[in-house]
Amino acid sequence: MASCLALAGCAETQDASEAEVAAEDGEPIGSYTVDPETGEVRAVHTDADGTRTTMAAGRTVDPVLPAPFVLPPDATIESVTRVEQGEGRLVTIVFTSELDRNALAEFYRDLAGEAGFSVTSDIPGENALVLAGESADDGTTFAATIRASDGGSEAELTVSAGIG
User: Bridge partners of 90?
Assistant: First the structure.
């Protein structure tokens, strides 16, 4: 409150933004926008200790998956949610693939194995297959839920490096 009163008494005509005032007071600040054309959502939050977290969600968001994860060559992205905090990143991608459910699971088993990940869950179910693992080197984790669909499969892949 004192900083608000001090700012009000300044002779400058430029007012401090709410974010600047909140930052001076050590309070959390943030913003949230929706692109009316694409529907893409973006949010930014800086907490009281200065840690900045950003989130972007939508079909056109660049996934920027943490290494070594990639989408299969024929993947069609349905939606992406990307959260970044400091050097950390968490990405969830919903996509379709021409690979059948088992072939897509094998794609991610092979990719994880080649990169030194240990597969911690590999659960084939009637409706979906769940695959998850972790890197002992840096704590990066992944989880994939893969369902059969007409002409291939649909999947949700989440990769987290340095967050949570």
Answer: 83, 160
Q: How many CB atoms lie within 10 A of CB 104?
A: 27
CA 107 to chain centre: 21
52-58 and 41-46 strand pairing:
antiparallel
Angle at 100 between CA 107 and CA 61, to 5 degrees: 65
pTM, whole model, 2 decimals?
Answer: 0.80
Strand ranges for 36-125 from DSSP E:
41-46, 52-58, 76-85, 88-97, 117-124
Taking phi over 0 as left and psi of -120 to 50 as alpha, with beta for the rest, 10 belongs to: beta
Largest Cα–Cα separation, the chain: 70
The tens digit of pLDDT for each residue in 52-108 reads 999 999 999 998 898 899 999 999 999 999 999 988 999 999 999 999 999 999 999
Place of tokens 């069609």: 76
Strand-pairing partners, residue 123, are 130
